[in-house]
């Protein structure tokens, strides 16, 4: 049963990650790419959380917290960059 669960989780997250990477590559604007990178980081957090739940441990919890912090700071810096660029265009 656990093997089937792992295969299903890997397939779903793999397809989602491929679609997200496609949006990062093709995305017409920087905001599309920023949202896609946030989604990719969220997928990584979900994969780490699923791995912790399946294997019954919390060893990767610090990695989860660091990835979450990087995602938040990355989003804030991109938002500030876009706000400055939009302000300069006016």
Question: Could you outline the blueprint of secondary structure elements for this entry?
Answer:
Layout: H1 2-26, H2 30-55, H3 61-89
Task: Describe this protein's structure.
The chain has helices at residues 2-26, 30-55, 61-89. The radius of gyration is 16 Å and the shape is elongated. With 90 residues, it is mainly α. The protein is built from 3 helices and no strands. The longest helix has 29 residues, at 61-89. The model has no long low-confidence stretch (mean pLDDT 90). Helix 1 (2-26) runs antiparallel to helix 2 (30-55) and helix 2 (30-55) runs antiparallel to helix 3 (61-89). The protein is 89% helix and 0% strand.
Give a summary of the structure in a few sentences.
The protein has 90 residues and is mostly helical.
Mean pLDDT: 90
Global shape = elongated
Number of strands: 0
Biggest sheet: strands, sense, closure? Answer: none
> How many distinct helices?
3
Question: Span from first to last CA?
Answer: 59 Å
Helix content: over 70%
Strand content: under 5%
Radius of gyration, CA atoms, in whole angstroms:
16 Å
- Low-pLDDT runs of 5+ residues are none
Q: Strand pairing plus helix content: what structural class?
A: mainly alpha
Order of helices and strands: HHH
Task: Please describe the structure with a list of short key phrases separated by commas or semicolons.
mainly alpha; elongated; 3 helices; 89% helix; 90 residues
